[in-house]
Amino acid sequence: MQQLQELRKQLTKEICDGDKEAFSEGKHSLEDLSDKELKHLIVDDTHGLIYCYIPKVACTNWKRVMFVLNWSEPYHDPMSISADLVHVPKKLTLLNSFPRPEMKVSPHNDLRSLKHYTKFMFVRDPFVRLISAYRDKFLRSNKYYYKNFARDILRLYGNRPDPPQTVDEAFVSGVHPSFYNFIEYLLDPLTEKRQPFEPHWRQMHRLCHPCHIQYDFIGHQETLQEDAEHLLRILKLQDDIKFPPSYENMTSPGSVMDWFRAVPLEDRRKLYKLYEGDFRLFGYRKPNELLDG
Fold it and tell me: Closest Cα to residue 216, out of 4, 14, 31, 6?
């Protein structure tokens, strides 16, 4: 497990160093990373931990762990914490709440050497993560995502000039964006001109900045339980915290081809280009079976 960690970290470093321009996004120092860009980094000062959470990559369960670590021992079972509670703003301490001089930065004035903390993140196959985000936000009744995203997607790409006003009306009539509508929305250059991608489908490296922050541990959703147990052992918390089990209905890598059948080849290739950085940085295989004609 330790060898695997070293390989993952080495790969990320090599990709970052080999293609600085692609991954720096014009950000070369601490000053360049805004508070907004640091808002996915949760700090536990007591245990010296920084966790960068990525939506649709076990982030609810890791937030539960960070939440119980804030309490005194013996720690509560993370599963006793409601999923809704851990997503309430200001329930967890974020790195961007620290004054800049207190961020323990390296002499190079970047965030790669927050040496006093163990910094960790968990990643997932980028296309599987997109499918998971689509299922969660558009195939379930969700007032916020219907109002702010689904209605526009239906109007612009779903051939519905006047979609139902409310999510309840939409669900009663069986109306929701198709997976291909969602992909069209992601590929439309105007989408990001209006505002940055919503975090559930924003590229993972744009949430956690692995080319600016040197992570000590990079876990994978595909080996979640083993990686979680390994990390808790490293932190000497294996006897105090039990990482919650994964649930059955998780989007599996094996179903990717089925989801992409309705997406034309050219658009699959464009989508890969859009998320190529995540594939490369985190060692995910290029899905040639989707991209070759």
Answer: 6
